[in-house]
Amino acid sequence: MILIPGCSRTAGRTDGAAIAFSELRKESQDIYNRIHSIAEDSAFVDQVRRSYPSLSLIREHRLE
Asked: Are 8 and 18 a contacting pair, CB within 8 Å?
């Protein structure tokens, strides 16, 4: 049996609500980190754009 920190056990079962909340917390942190990373990247690109106004910006083309 795998025990997850923060999850309680009752009568041999793992608390499903605690597992669900744990997963939601992970997803929420992941979304925050992604948005924070995008904001930092945007600020960096803006700084480079202002430092080199004569150069054109070309967006990265990703094949996903």
From this structure: yes
Q: What is the pTM of this model?
A: 0.52
| Cβ(57)–Cβ(49) below 8 Å | yes
pLDDT given at position 5: 56
Instruction: Find all residues with CB under 8 Å of 59, minimum gap 6, and list them.
Output: none
Residue 6: pLDDT over 90: no
Can you give the chain as a three-state secondary structure string? CCCCCCCCEECCEECHHHHHHHHHHHHHHHHHHHHHHHHHHHHHHHHHHHHCCCCCCCCCCCCC
44 secondary structure, DSSP code: H
